[in-house]
Amino acid sequence: MARLRRITDLGELAGRTVLVRLDLNVPIQDGRISDDTRIRAHVPTIRLLREGGAKLALLSHFGRPGGRVVPAMSLRPLLPALEAAFGEPIGFASDCIGEEARQAVNAADGLVLLENVRFHRGEKANDPDFAGKLAALGEAFVNDAFSAAHRAHASTEGVAHLLPAAAGEAMAREIEALERALGHPERPLAAIIGGAKISTKLAVLGHLARQVDHLVIGGGMANTFLLAQGFDIGTSLAEHDLVETARKILEEAAGAGCTVHLPRDVVVARALAPRVPNRVVPVDAVRDAEMILDIGPESVARLIGVLEEARTLIWNGPLGAFEVPPFDRATVRLAQAAARLTRTGRLLSVAGGGDTVAALNAAGVTHDFSHVSTAGGAFLEWMEGKTLPGVAVLLA
Q1: For the domain with range 185-383, which CATH number is right: 4.10.520.10, 3.40.50.1260, 3.40.50.720, 3.10.100.10?
Q2: What is the helix (H) or strand (E) element at residue 372, kind and residue range?
Q3: Which one in 96, 114, 120, 388 has a CA-CA gap of 20 to 30 Å to 360?
Q4: C-alpha 189: how far from its chain's center?
């Protein structure tokens, strides 16, 4: 990959106004932020720019207002959390372009938060006129929102063509970790891909089957692969129309020298519910009225052995229905093994995706992984081998 432009490439910033694209699309429950991880991730970028004497105009989207003003999706309620994280007062403009935004930027001593960019249709359309109005508010642009980098929107891609542009610290950290894991990995390289459906990760599976040494398939999508191998999976979640696709992925992997790991034993029950009676059986012993809800202990032990041989790991998606104990056991055990190997320096571990982060948090190992990405779509598209427009525009 070409060199990523960094903040230091922007030169002297003292007294200049820098537009900073953040990802403030944080979860809110009962009017309170339930997880401020994304906000805290931006602290190093804000600190670096402020220490350089720059004034900052902060941009972000929130929700999906569809190009119209939706008061419930205003960024204003985030101000207290941002001020606590960034350590100084922050002004607010009730629009992200136009005279009001310009006045708020001019009046601010340090930081000003501009209203939700998605209140304008020009944002998602990457409209040049809207991008120009954003660019008019600053003298340089820093994108720190890797999680939105797969979208060619005005505030992620369009404005970067109009101002000196660079990646923020969080963005650069994400890209560096992903490049180490997929761009130039130390081998053997293993990938764990879980989740409910093959259809949502077809491109990822196809790309990784040609790139990695070991491909571990778990979650509901493993059931479709088991079906493709002729196993009876009872009432398990599966995509029957993608059985042939699953066979082709297995053939591609074999042709590329990639070993695909599917469960040999599974945890089954008649329903997905807490404390429901369940049993561990070989994959060829699932009864008609049973559903596969996790992989079994023999399979977990075998996969831990794979991790012990690997030097690099990419993880996206849980291995079972981890939200409902006891069907979280395989995910937790494998996560703990990966964390242990990472702590001892034997494994570079990179994980990403909302369910993945939740699973690692539940296992208590998030901070032990080499890198955990909060990005969803951008993380998946990177694993598909796609060029992300919000990154490409920042390359020297």
Answers
A1: 3.40.50.1260
A2: strand 371-373
A3: 388
A4: 20
Residue 88, class by beta-carbon neighbours within 10 Å (0-12 exposed, 13-18 middle, 19+ buried)?
A: exposed
Residue 219 — pLDDT band, cuts 50, 70, 90?
Answer: very high
Handedness of CA 123, 147, 9, 90 (dihedral sign): positive
Burial 108-128 (b: 16+ CB within 10 A, else e): bebbbbbbbbbbbebbbbbbe
Residue 27: predicted pLDDT:
87
> Which of 36, 35, 25 shows the shortest CA–CA distance to 63?
25
State how far the Cα of 170 lies from the Cα of 86, in Å rounded to an integer: 14
**Is the Cβ–Cβ distance between 299 and 265 less than 8 Å?**
yes
Kindly indicate whether the domain formed by 7-171 is annotated with CATH number 2.40.50.1020: no
Active site residue 38: yes
Give 252: exposed, middle or buried? Use CB within 10 Å, 0-12, 13-18, 19+: middle
Range 119-123 contact pairs with CB under 8 angstroms and sequence separation of 24 or more: 119/65, 119/67, 119/68, 119/69, 119/70, 119/73, 119/95, 120/67, 120/96, 121/67, 122/67, 122/154, 123/61, 123/67, 123/153, 123/154, 123/155
* 66 tagged catalytic: no
**What is the spatial distance between Cα 127 and Cα 125, in angstroms, rounded to a whole number?**
5
- Residue 155 contacts residue 124 (beta carbons within 8 Å): no
Catalytic residue among 52, 206, 376, 377: 377
| Count of H-run helices and E-run strands, the chain | 15, 17
185-383: same fold as 7-171? yes
Q: Write the pLDDT tens digit of every residue in 102-111.
A: 999 999 889 9
- Choose, from 87, 98, 354, 364, the residue flagged as catalytic: 354
Average pLDDT over residues 24-48: 91
Residue of 6, 16, 197, 340 marked catalytic: 197
Q: Whole-structure pTM over 0.70, yes or no?
A: yes
Query: Is pLDDT of 201 > 80?
Result: yes
The pLDDT score that the predictor gives to residue 29 is: 82
Q: Give the single-character DSSP code of 119.
A: G
User: Where is average pLDDT lowest: 62-66, 162-166, 354-358?
Assistant: 354-358
- Report the distance separating Cα 169 and Cα 304, nearest Å: 33
